[in-house]
Amino acid sequence: MTEFNCPNCGAGLPVALKSIRQMSCSSCGTSVFLSAGQALAAGDSGVMHDAPLLFHLDDQVMVEGVALHILGHARFSYGRGTWDEFWAVAPDEARYWLSVDEGDVILQSRIPGDLAPVIAGWPRLGAEFAHKGRNYTATETSEAECIAVRGSFDERIAVGDRQRYVNLQGPDGMLLSLEQDEDGETWFQGRWLDPFEIAGRQT
């Protein structure tokens, strides 16, 4: 356990995992970026309007036999609505994202750069390509903006950050997602989940 102090109000910020790079101060709401042993103000955490949620910060959930501890919550707007992203860590410190959009749940993890798919250009709707022997089709592409963050993350996520994304559907509920922002492109892999099969929620 390492502890920093909020650069805005001075409150203690306990950091339990070495992988954490950003967290929200529970006292003043400032987003704090951790870099080179320092805590730097990263802006306001935004307004997380009340809404029914499947998960909450500090929940312990069992997903496909993996125990996940939810540490971060980010909300994104894509114009006609919003969706929620929950950053979670397994006991072996493997990191996952639980995406929730109108009750639909996706479990995803980042694909390392050297293992990421290689494609020419940005996928258009209906575009198809193969990855590791599976065929995928681009089913959704849009842009989104982060509007609120709470808790801790292994990367910097700031209110106002914008990203371009495309979701590609594969067989048996498999999914690939490509996100593009000012820092470059990131691939994620995952699968759709039945929310009723997620056990152990604690609020």
* Gap from first CA to last CA: 23 Å
Give me the Rg, rounded.
17 Å
Low-confidence stretches: none
Derived structural class: mainly beta
Largest sheet: 8 strands, antiparallel, barrel
| Helix-strand pattern | EEEEEEEEEEEEEEE
Percent helix among the residues? under 10%
Question: Any overview of this molecule?
Answer:
There is one protein chain. The protein has no helices and 15 strands. A hairpin with an 8-residue loop joins strand 12 (134-153) and strand 13. With 203 residues, it is an all-beta fold. It is globular, with a radius of gyration of 17 Å.
Report a brief summary of the structure.
The chain is 0% helix and 55% strand.
Write the layout of secondary structure elements.
Blueprint: E1 2-5, E2 12-15, E3 22-24, E4 30-35, E5 38-44, E6 60-63, E7 66-77, E8 82-89, E9 95-101, E10 104-110, E11 128-131, E12 134-153, E13 162-169, E14 174-181, E15 184-193
Antiparallel strand pairs: 1-2, 3-4, 3-12, 4-5, 6-7, 7-8, 7-12, 8-9, 9-10, 10-15, 11-12, 12-13, 13-14, 14-15
